[in-house]
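Summary of Year 1 activities. Much of the first year was spent building the evaluation harness for sequence design. The harness presents a backbone, in tokenized form, and records the residue chosen at every position. We chose the following record to illustrate the format because it has been used consistently in internal testing since the harness was completed.
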């Protein structure tokens, strides 16, 4: 099953291909229509120039929209990476703190055992001196 991000990424890329095909088809269709229209050469050239300028503007606009989408996607990835890094750091800190608590607990237990052994040894030494 696709995640939401994969679904939208594929949908966006399909739209981009469709939009590009639509623009190319419009230019080709308009150029053919102009070439077969009964107008003077100067009028036809002006119409072709106007059409080319219009399509250039359309492509610039599409380029800007695409750049904005990419910038948004990069920002989203960056934000998710930062959140993942913060979570990882928090998890590592938590485990380090738990490990340190265990080390202190074991050290305290070992010290207590050593103290008991010394006390036992001291008591044993006092009884053997009699």
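For this record, the design step produced the sequence shown next.
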């Amino acid at each position: 099953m696709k995640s939401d991000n994969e679904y939208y990424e594929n949908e966006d890329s399909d739209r981009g291909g469709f939009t590009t095909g639509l623009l190319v088809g419009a230019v080709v269709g308009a150029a053919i229509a102009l070439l077969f229209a009964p107008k003077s050469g100067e009028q036809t050239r002006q119409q072709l120039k106007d059409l080319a300028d219009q399509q250039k503007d359309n492509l610039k606009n599409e380029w800007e929209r695409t750049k904005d989408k990419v910038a948004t996607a990069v920002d989203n990835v960056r934000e998710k990476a930062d959140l993942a890094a913060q979570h990882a750091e928090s998890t590592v800190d938590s485990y380090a703190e738990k490990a340190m608590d265990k080390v202190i607990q074991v050290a305290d237990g070992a010290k207590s055992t050593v103290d008991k052994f010394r006390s036992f040894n001291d008591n044993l030494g006092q009884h053997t001196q009699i």
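The longest helix spans residues 41-128. Quantitative recovery figures across the full test set are reported in Table 2.
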